[in-house]
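Dear colleague,

As promised, here are the two records you asked about, laid out in our usual form so they can be pasted straight into your sheet.

NAME FIELD: protein one
SEQUENCE, THEN STRUCTURE:
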Amino acid sequence: MQPVVSVWVRDPRIRKNDFWHAYIDYEICLHTDSVCFTKKVSSVRRRFSEFVWLRQKLQENSMLMVQLPELPPKNPFFSLNNAQQITDRMKGLQKFLEQALQSPLLLSDSLLHLFLQSQLSVSKMQACAAGRTHYSVAQAVKHCGLRRFHSEEDLKKDLSMSCDSDCDSSECRDPEPRIKALALNKAASTALLDLKGTSQEENFSCTSEST
C-alpha cells in the first residue's frame, strides 16, 4: 500500500518579540505511516520566514533537480489583524508542504524532517543536518515535544490538543483515567508533605508525576 503522509498547517498565533515587533507562527501537524519518518505523529510551530528559509535550502540541496512548489507570496501590506490574509497564507503554506512531501528526493533531505518534526532553530537545523551537533537528526526528532506536566490544567490542555490532531488513542477518547491518576498522585504527595511537617522522626519524599 502507498504510505500515507498527512500534514496540516493551522492554529495561527501572534508572538511578540518586544513591544514594537510581533509575528505569527503556525502549528504544523503531521501524521504518517511512512518509513521515511522517525516519528509517526508530530506537532511543531514555525513562522513564515522559516518556510522561506526551508524552500531556499531544499532548492539548493536538490541541485535544481526538483521543481519546488511555491510559497504564498509575500504581502507588504500583510496585517496581523487581518483574518482573511492570515487564513490565505496558512492555506498556501499547507499546500506547499503537501506538494513537497510528494517528492522522494525532498523526503531524503534531513532539513525537511528537522523542520517538520523538531523545534530546532534555523541555525541549529543547519548544524544538525551537517553533523556539527552532539545529537543526530533522529535524536532531535525523537526528543521533540517531550515535556513535564506540572498540573491537571496542563494535562487537560495537552490531551485536548492531541485530540484536535486526530489522535485515536484511548487517552484521547477517554482522558479522565489519566487525569484522575494525576489527581490521586497529587493528593498522595500533599498527604506526605503534611506528615513530614508534623513528625520530626520520619522523612518522606514527594515526587511529581512526569509525562
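NAME FIELD: protein two
SEQUENCE, THEN STRUCTURE:
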Amino acid sequence: MAARQKSMSSSLMGTLAASCLLVMALWVQREAAVPIVSRCSLDRANFQQPYITNRTFALAQEASLADNNTDVRLIGTKLFQGVNQMTERCYMLKQVLNFILEEMLLPQSNRFKPYMQEVVPFLARLNKKLGQCHIECDNQNIQRNVQNLKDTVKKLGESGEIKVIGELNLLFMALKNECTRPGQSSEMDN
C-alpha cells in the first residue's frame, strides 16, 4: 500500500510539474506576443489635452497659409492604401512621424513660433512612446507608402516642408484614430 501511494504521489508530482511547465511556456509565449500589439498604441488621453490640440491645429493653420501647393495631400487616404489593419496603420504612422520629426520639424524649429516649440516636444513624446512598435508581417505596402510620402516631400522642396507642417493637424488626427483604442490605455503610456 505504501509503495502504491508513493508511486501515485510520484506520478501526481510528475503530472503537476509537467502542467506547470506547460502553463509557464504558454504564459511566456503569450507575453512575448502581446507587446507587439500593445506597443503599437497610444493612450487616448494624449489627444484629449485641449491646449496641445489647439497649438497643433494653430501651427498647421499658420503653415498652411504659406502652402501654395493645394494639389498634393500628404496625410490622407493614399497614405493608407493597402494598409488595412489598425496595428499596421499605427506602425506606418510611427514611421511617418519619425521622418517628419527628424527631417522636417527639428530643422525648422525656429519657424512658426511659438507653436513649433510646444508641438515638437509633444510629437517627440508620442514618437518615443511608439518607439517599441514593431510588426511581424509583410510590410511592403507600408514601406512603399512611407517612401512615396518622403519622395513627394523631397520633390516639393521647401514647399514640401511647409506642406508637412501644414498637415500636422491631419497627422495628429490620424495618430488619434489609428493608434488609440477607445477606453484603453496602453502599457507604454503609464
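A couple of things worth noting about protein two: The helical segments are 2-38, 50-65, 86-105, 115-129, 140-156, 158-166, 168-179. The chain is about 65% helix and 0% strand.

Best,
R.
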